[in-house]
Amino acid sequence: MAGIVRYGSYVPYFRLTRAAIGAGKGERAVASFDEDAVSMAVEAGRDAVRGGVAVDAILFATLSPAYAEKLDTATIQAALDLPETVSSAALGGSSRMGLAALLLGLDLAAAGKRALVCASDLVIGGPGGGRESEGGDAAAAFVTGPDSEAIARVLGRASATIEILDAWRLPEDRFPRQWEERFTAEMMGPAIVDAARRALQAGGVDPSTLTTVILDGTNPRAMAGLPKALGLKPEQIADTLAASVGRAGCAHAGLLLARALDGARPGDRILVVCEADGADALVLEVTDAITRLPPVRKVDRWIAAKRNDLPYNTYLKWRGILPFEPPRRPDPERPAAPPMRRHERWKLAFVGSRCAKCHAGHLPPQRVCVKCGAVDQMRDERFADTSCQVATYTLDHLAYSLQPPVVAAFVDYEGGGRFACELTDVDPKEVAIGNHLEMTFRRLFTVQGVHNYFWKARPGR
Amino acid sequence: MASNGIRDRVAIVGMGCTAFGEHWDKGPEDLLVDAAQEAYRSAGVDGEQVDAYWLGTMGSGTSGLMLSEALKLPYKPVTRIENMCATGSEAMRNAAYAVASGAYDLVMAIGVEKLKDSGYSGLVITSPPNDGTRSNMTAPAMFALLAPAYAKKYGVDEEQLKQVLARIAWKNHRNGAKNPKAQFRKEVPIEAICKSPAVAGMLGVFDCSGVSDGAAAAILCRAEDAHKYSKHPIFIKALSFAAGPAHGYYSQDYDFTTFPEVVASAQDAYHQAGVKDPREEISMAEVHDCFTPTELVLMEDMGFSARGQAWKDVLDGRFDGDGPQPINPDGGLKSFGHPIGASGLRMMYEMWLQLRGEAGPRQIKNPKVGMTHNLGGAPGRCVSFVSVVGV
Questions:
Q1: pLDDT tens-digit profile, chain A (461 residues)
Q2: Cα(B71)–Cα(B229) distance, rounded to whole angstroms?
Q3: Quick one: B22 exposed, middle or buried, by C-beta within 10 A (0-12, 13-18, 19+)?
Q4: Known catalytic residue: B85?
Q5: Which residues of chain B make contact with A329, given a CB cutoff of 8 A?
Q6: Where are the alpha helices (H) located in B101-208, listed in sequence order?
Q7: Nearest in space to B17 (alpha carbons), one of B111, B115, B85
Q8: Is A225 exposed, middle or buried (0-12, 13-18, 19+ CB in 10 A)?
Q9: E-assigned strand segments in chain B
Q10: CA pair distance A402, A388, nearest whole angstrom
C-alpha cells in the first residue's frame, strides 16, 4: 500500500470580492499579475519537498498550463531544485485531474516510486459568468510514498469515467461553457454516490467513522445528494471554501485535502470525492507520522494573509481580458535560451554562491569573491528559503508593470548576501527598511510567447 | 590607486557644443557635424588637420564610421567609445592620452546622443541576450535609493531633505536660465519642484535630468603646441577613472550614502593635480547631477563638504552660481540636459567658457581651477570619471 508522506498548499494574496463583480457574497482568490499555474504549483511544492525530500516523478495537473507545448513540470522540477533524473507527466482536460494525479501518484508509490503531485489552477471565466465569480486560484502539492512513511495512507479508492456534456472548452477558446446544472446534477448524482460507496467498501470503512468528507465538483447540485445517501452528519462535511477562495479547478480537491491534513490527528479518516466527467473517490487514514511532520504553512494561514480590495478592472487587466494603454516604456526583453540554461539553478532555483574562504554570499553566483578576491572558491547555496529583509527600497513609478508602482528593493539575506529585486504582494505604504521578507517564485512577464520565471521577495505571509 | 597623470601636458584648444534639447529636425549625424564644425572653428583648424578622433555614444550609433561618414573624414583613425553616462568624458580621456603619448599631434574627442527619437519616457537601455533575472529598476529608482539612506544616516528629516533636493534643482534651473544652450532655460520655484509628479521614491519630475539630444566636441594637443591653435587654451591637470566591482550589489555593508568609485577617482585626480583641499582650491565644478540626490552625495564624495554636511552647505547656498564654490554653473544635467554620450564633453565646454571668461551672464569671477565629474551606472555599481583643468 501507499500514502501521502508530505504536502503543501498555496493560495495567492489577492481576493476579488463578489461585490466588486456584482455577483453576491464572499470573495475569490486571485493569482497576481506575476503568477500562473506553474508558479503557484512551485509555491505549494516548496513545503512538500522542503529539506530535500527525494522524488522519482513529478505529476502536474492543471486546466491552465503555462505552455500549450513545453513541459511545465520541467519548470517545477528546476524551481524546486529537484534532480533532472525525475520522470514527468502532465494531466489536464478536466478539473478532476488534480485528484486523478494524486491517485496516479499513489499508484506509483505502491510500485515503489515516490512522486511529487502538484495540482494548480488559475480559473478564468467569461466576465459576468458563474465560473468567474465562483472560481478561484490556488495550488496543492503532495509527495506520495510508502505506507511506512505515510502521514495518511490509502484505505480505499474508486473511480468512474462518464461521457457527458457538462463543462467544456475548445483548445482555442478562452472561457469554458457549462450545460444546465439540473441536468448534470441528476445524471451525475448517482455515479458520485456509487464511487464513494465503492471506495469506502474497498477500505471496509463505515461512513459514520469518517472525520472529514470533502466534496468537490463542477456542479454543487450533483454533490448535494451524497451526504444523505451515505448517512453523513453536517459536521463531517468539509467547508468547500466557496466564500473565501472559490473553486480552484484541478487544485481544489487537493487544497481541501491539504486543509483537512492541516488539522488532522492520527486515526482520522478522510473521504475525498471529486466530480467532473465522472468521479474519483479516495479514503485515507491519518497516521502517527503526522505528528512528526515538519511545519507546513496551513491553508487557513494562506487564506488569512490577503488583500481584498482588488478592483474588478485591475483583475480583468491582469488576466488579459481588458485591453489597456501600455506604459510609455519599452516592452521587456525576451530572455534567451542559452543564458537561461547556463544560469538555470540561479534563475529557477535561486541558487547563489558563497565564498569558501571568507563566506561572503553572492547573488547571482560569482566566480570571483567580491570581498576577498578568491577565484573559483565558491560553493553553491540556495537562498530561496533564506530569511531576508529590506536593506533599502524605492517606489518606481516609471518601470514597466501591470501593478505600478514597482516596489524595488535591495534585499539582505541572513548569513550574508544581497540582491536587488522586485517586491510583490505588497502594499507600497507598508514597506520599511528592515521589514522581514521571504522569496517567492513568479512569472515576471511574458514576451514573444516566452514566460520569464524568476524570484521576487514578498513580506512574510 | 596608482596613476602617474599627465598634468599640464595636454591642452584643449578648441571646443564646440550644440544646444541640448529636443532636436526633432536633427539626427545624431547632424548634431555631430554641428559640434565638430564649431570645434574646428574654435581651434582654427579643419578636419584634415586633426590626426585622430574619439567618438563617444552610448547607443545612437556604432563604430567609428558613424563619425567618419558624417564628417566625410579622409581615412582617419576613429575610435568609438562607450562607458555608460561617462562616455563623453571617456572619449576625451583617451584622446588626451593619445596626444600625450606622442602618437598624434592633434585629436578630437566628440560625443553625441539622440534620446528623443525613442518615444519613451526616460532613458532606454537595451541589454545583450540574457537570462531575464536582472532587476528592471529604472535610473530614477536606483538613484532615489540615496535619499532615504542619507536622511537616515545623518538624521535629516525626510521633509527637510526634500527641501535640500529641491534647492539643488532650483539652483541648477537658475543657472540654466542664463545659458542659451540649455534645454530648460527657466527658473522654477521651490514649491513647484516639490509638487512635481512622482517618478521614484522621493523624486519628482524636477529631480531628474533632462532627456535630450545633443553633441559636444573638444580638440586637444600637447601643451607645447597649444598656442599654435588658441590664444587662451586650457590645460588638463588630472584625468581619473574608476570602474567599481559592484560591491554594493553584493555586500550588505554598502549603505547607499556614497559612491566609492567617485571617492577613488576624485582622490586620484587630486593626487595627479596636486590638490590638497578641494573645498578651498576648486573654483567650480560640473558634476553628474543625474538626479538631485546624486549631486548631494557627490559634494561629500568629492570632498567639497564634510560627511553628513553637504545638505547644510546646499541650504547655505555654498554651491549656488554666485556662491563660494559654484556647482554646475551651466545648469548641469538637470537643466542643460543629458544626451548621454555628449554630457562629459558638455561639462568640459563649460570649463572652457568659464576659464576663458566667455560664460556671459553666468561668468564666475576669476576661476582658477575647475573640475568635471561624470558618472555611469548606479549607486553600488558604477563608473566614475574626474578631471581637473585650469589655465
A1: 799 999 999 999 999 999 999 989 999 999 999 999 999 999 999 999 998 899 999 999 999 999 999 999 999 999 999 999 999 999 999 999 999 999 999 999 999 999 999 999 999 999 999 999 999 999 999 999 999 999 999 999 999 999 999 999 999 999 999 999 999 999 999 999 999 999 999 999 999 999 999 999 998 899 999 999 999 999 999 999 999 999 999 999 999 999 999 999 999 999 999 999 999 999 999 999 999 999 999 999 999 999 999 999 999 999 999 998 887 888 889 999 999 999 999 999 999 999 999 999 999 999 999 999 999 999 999 999 999 999 999 999 988 888 889 999 999 999 999 999 999 999 999 999 999 999 999 999 999 999 999 999 999 99
A2: 21
A3: middle
A4: yes
A5: 120-122, 124, 138
A6: 139-144, 146-153, 158-176, 190-194
A7: B111
A8: middle
A9: 10-17, 52-56, 78-81, 106-114, 198-200, 203-204, 213-222, 234-243, 284-286, 369-378, 381-390
A10: 25
Rounded to whole angstroms, the Cα distance separating B283 from B354 reads 10
Candidates B137, B142, B143, B152, partner chain A, best to mutate (most A CBs within 10 A): B137
Whether CATH 3.40.50.2300 fits B139-209+236-390: no
pTM for this one? 0.95
How many Å separate Cα A296 from the centre of its chain? 14
φ, ψ (nearest 5 deg) of residue A151: -85, -20
Structural domains of chain A, with CATH: 2-318 (3.40.47.10), 337-459 (no CATH)
Give yes or no for A444 touching B (CB within 8 A).
yes
Residues A140-150 pLDDT 10s: 999 999 999 99
Chain A, nearest residue to B125 by Cα? A330
Instruction: Decide: helix, strand or coil at residue B63.
Output: coil
Residues of A in contact with B245 (CB under 8 A): 370
Q: Give the Cβ contact number of residue A338 at 10 Å.
A: 9
**A451 to chain B: closest CA residue:** B132
CB pairs under 8 A between A and B: 125
Closest by CA position to A16, among listed A112, A136, A124: A136
Please check whether residue A392 touches B, CB under 8 A.
Answer: yes
Decide whether B10-117+213-233 matches B139-209+236-390 in CATH topology: yes
The nearest CA of chain B is from the CA of A222 a distance in Å of 46
What are the chain B neighbours of A335 within 8 Å (beta carbons)? 129-132
Residues 342-381 of A with CB under 8 A from B: 342-343, 346-347, 360-364, 366, 370-371
Is B201–A422 a contact, with Cβ atoms under 8 angstroms apart?
no
Ranges of each domain in chain B: 10-117+213-233, 139-209+236-390
Closest approach of B34 to chain A, Cα-based (Å): 30
Fold classified for B10-117+213-233: Peroxisomal Thiolase; Chain A, domain 1 (3.40.47)
Contact A445, A424 (CB under 8 A): no
B17 is catalytic: no
B389/B391 Cα distance (integer angstroms):
7
CA–CA distances in Å: residue A335 to residues A262, A320, A406, B131: 39, 21, 20, 5
* C-alpha cell recorded at residue B1: 590607486
Asked whether the bond before A405 is cis by omega within 30 degrees of 0, the reply is: yes
| Cβ of residue A421 closer than 8 Å to a chain B Cβ | yes
State which H helix or E strand residue A201 sits in: helix A181-203
- The packing angle between helices B158-176 and B292-301, to 10°, is 90
